[in-house]
Protein: DUF4760 domain-containing protein
Amino acid sequence: MSKFEIALSATLFGWLLAQGTEYIRYTIKLRSKKLAIVEEMREIKSLLQEGAKSALNSALSYGKEGKITVSLGSTLTTPVFNAFYHEVAHEFDNWQRYNIRTFYNCLQHYNSVIEWVQNLKSKSATHNEVIFKLFEGYKQASICVAYLDGCEDSGGKERITDDSASLKKLQAEFIEYSDQLSFKPS
Structure:
């Protein structure tokens, strides 16, 4: 081999090594962002479980024995999802993206209930409206948790539908608890 061929081979080998290194860095960066999103969803799950309990207890006890105070905590934010999802969405398959969108839609609805309760002023809503909103917050938080459980069970690889076991169980709970709410006749 001539010096020219050796130099050309070394340059080509160096370029291939650089490309390989760049690809590995890119893959690791994507994987770490994807894992950060999944970890954020797990953290939110525990907060949603507590929020669901709080909302249900508030809905069931509101107006009974003079209890008219409500506290659901603050809205849940998703800074990691907001920052990185657009970069790693292609790393999730169709069902995972569907489940994530459904989860975040329910989360936004739950946050809107929290904001409604935070902005609630004395005499600005009827007794029944407050109970309805609290129960709606419980339902949305519970649905979010059910979606996360379903995604963990299947790795997000299956679409979580209305006929999944966890959502059917929730529907039965919703009916049971709705009978216990202290709505006032209009």
Observations:
- Residues 3-61 form the longest helix (59 residues).
- The chain is about 75% helix and 0% strand.
- The radius of gyration is 24 Å.
